[in-house]
Amino acid sequence: MNDELTQVLAQATRLACTAITRPHQAALQASLDQARAVPAELGWERKAAAHAEFFNALADTAGAPRLTPVFNHGAGLVYDLMITVIVL
Fold it and tell me: What is the pTM of this model?
C-alpha cells in the first residue's frame, strides 16, 4: 500500500511542479522553513505535523481538487513515519 501511495504521490508532485509559480514556490519554501524551525523540544508530534503540512502547500500549488486527497494521504504518511521513527 505505501509503495503505491509513494508512486501516486510522486506523480501528483510532478503535476504540482508543472503548475508552480513564484508565489507557490514561496509558499512551499515558507512551509518547509516553518517545519524546520519547530524545535524538537516542543514535541515531535508538532514537528511531524509541520512537515506533513508541506503536502497541503503542494495541494494548493497543484490547484487540482482531484489531487487533494492524494496529498492528504501523503501528509498522513509523513506524520505516521516520523512518529514511528521517534517511538523506535
Answer: 0.73
